[in-house]
Design brief:
4-stranded antiparallel β-sheet; alpha+beta
């Protein structure tokens, strides 16, 4: 037992022998990359929101890190949406080894809290079944998800019939306003969708739930046929919030309702 005293308080806590603690892994690996903290923070921020939570498909509970030809691509999906981001890596010796790994989403959320908007590089060390990031004096370790990731490229839109150019700030504000009456926001049992009627006049947004109804319009430049499409409001909000704030205009591409 361990006894801890402080001030007028005394704690007696059940303890176990230190020898029974699981052995720490060997912090070694066969491949290493130096990644600027700003770059890693950007890639995780733009994708981690789409990682599934406790999905029976193990791969979806993590994000795919794929390094090919000096470019790091991060992809995440929960089966309903896909988010990807990529950035070019640099190496002093000109050699950037290729690799592919699935890192648990919960680990990435914790790692994100440690990263700064700095160009200082941190090492990412890949072992046989684990990956290690070293931030300052902290070694952050996790086991990888040992499974195949879904072929997300097959679900990415290749060609579009309708293209929309719209202000990020205006669309985000409009979707946030519509979300006020959705069941997700009110805590209802249903899942109210947000409907977008996209025409040459712009985007008309609307939603109806047990808590009320809302409608509004956002100016936009539209090319191609009119289209009506609906989304889970939270999913659309997550995507819009992940867009960098300095992005003035969004391009939305659609091919069917």
């Amino acid at each position: 037992r361990a006894v801890i005293s402080g001030g007028s308080f005394q704690f007696e806590i059940t303890a176990s022998p230190g020898a029974e603690f699981p052995s720490m892994p060997m912090f070694v690996g066969d491949r290493i990359w130096q990644i600027p903290q700003r770059t890693l923070k950007f890639l995780i921020t733009k994708t981690v929101y789409a990682v599934a939570q406790n999905d029976p498909r193990a791969a979806l509970n993590g994000a795919l890190f794929r390094i090919r030809d000096g470019v790091l691509t991060v992809a995440a999906s929960d089966g309903f949406r896909i988010s990807t981001a990529n950035a070019a890596l640099s190496a002093e010796n000109g050699q950037i080894p290729d690799a592919e790994m699935i890192i648990p989403g919960r680990f990435l959320g914790e790692l994100l809290r440690l990263l700064r908007d700095s160009d200082d590089c941190i090492p990412m060390l890949l072992g046989r079944k684990h990956v290690i990031f070293t931030v300052d004096s902290l070694r952050f370790f996790t086991r990888l998800l040992d499974t195949e990731y879904l072929p997300y490229e097959q679900f990415m839109l290749v060609c579009a019939k309708t293209e929309v150019s719209v202000s990020r700030a205006l669309l985000l504000s409009a979707v946030e306003s519509v979300s006020v009456v959705t069941e997700d926001k009110l805590g209802g049992s249903g899942r109210t969708h947000i409907k977008l009627d996209i025409t040459g006049d712009g985007i008309a947004l609307s939603s109806v739930s047990s808590g009320g109804s809302v409608s509004g319009t956002v100016p936009a430049e539209v090319s191609g046929p009119d289209i009506t499409i609906a989304f889970t409001c939270r999913y659309l909000l997550d995507a819009l919030k992940a867009v960098p704030e300095d992005c003035a205009a969004l391009r939305i591409r659609l091919n069917s309702p």
